Amino acid sequence: MTSKDHDGAAGGTLDTVNGFTDPGLPEHKPRITDVEPAAAKVAERQVAAWFILSMIGTIWFIVSYFLFAPDGSLGRLRLQNAMLGIGAAIALGSVGIGIILWAKTLITDAEVTEDRHSIAGSAEDQAIALEILNQAKEESGIARRPLLRNLLIAAVAIAPLPAVLVLRDLGPLPGDALFRTLWKQGVRLCQDPGGVPEEDRPIKLADVTIGSAFHVIPEKLRESEDPLNEKAKAAVLLMRIRPEELNIEPGRENWSIDGVVAYSKICTHVGCPVALYEHQTHHLLCPCHQSTFDVTNHCKVIFGPAKRPLPQLPIAVDSEGYLVAQSDFHEPVGPTFWEIHTRSTDA
Questions:
Q1: CA distance 304 to 289
Q2: Which parts of this chain are annotated as the region Disordered (predicted)?
Q3: What is the DSSP code string of 187-221?
């Protein structure tokens, strides 16, 4: 039950609902920027400074993209990523701080209450909505403060430019490029130390014990024209389980040796590195979206958004006991959603 009570602190009557009295709005206390034009001017300059800093951050992002272009080394790539991150953080953070500071110091902060009403599309309601927008324009000062308005528009206008550079690096659709990796007959499987290795560390069959897992790259990766991109396609996980636990499909009987199997490390969902191996369950887990693959069943998907198994790399042992590839992958690596054309006959 609702009844009207005595006058509230902010004027008007108070409602009593189920025994609880609405205290009304607190008395509005003006800020220093509301009563001191000089303080408002200082706040306006501070907001303008943040918007200018945002534009500087955007420009720094663009400059860093070209100034710190990768030269093939991992250190250079990390430096560029760091500089791009600094630029993006300054650009986005500064424009956000500027907007917050504008709202906190210059936009009217008086509290109001409005009765709820049914939503309709009449001409009268449209006129009211337009009046509200005009009132908001006046209260925000966006019409009276052209400096802040124009700097905000400029900062927001150039903010998407870094995205143009980043999207440009995505390049064209891969076509049949994902059928071609550095793996071919006789290429040794080497341990991946991270980045581009200075020397090869080939793996012997005797080095792979039951329950172990190795991050693997092709031999002589550093000698390729683009080692980082080639590694991104050819990265492999090598594991060993008991041979009797493998459910080998017809045609793949000689793709593994004594329970040692090798699969692409690139998740078939969106290309994240599948790097987590549960040796007790023989499951491979992608940490990005939790796609889970069963090593005992040719890495078929048992959970998550991935739609196809991880491609298997056929392996063998050479005369010196080192693990080698029998061929390249027999299917494309990488995400399923990429448009992948028919494999060329010379792949």
A1: 7
A2: 1-31
A3: PBEEE--SSS-SS--B-BGGG--TT-EEEEEETTG
State the chain's maximal CA–CA distance in angstroms.
98
Answer whether residue 300 is part of any domain: yes
**CB–CB of 333/308 below 8 Å?**
no
When divided into structural domains, the chain yields a total of 2
Which residues touch 95 (CB under 8 Å, ≥6 apart)? Answer: 50, 51, 54, 152, 155, 156, 159
Please name the residue that has the structure tokens 């092709």. 218
Question: Averaged over 62-67, what is the pLDDT?
Answer: 92
Q: Report the pLDDT value the prediction gives residue 108, as an integer from 0 to 100.
A: 83
In a domain, 22, yes or no: no
Residue 125, in any domain of the structure:
yes
Q: How far apart are CA 27 and CA 111, in angstroms?
A: 9
Predicted TM-score (pTM) of this structure: 0.55
| 1 lies in some domain | no
The amino acid at residue 226 is: D
- What are the residues facing 293 on neighbouring strands? 284, 301
Residues 333 and 220: their CA atoms lie apart, in Å, by 20
For residue 225, what are the domain limits? 177-325
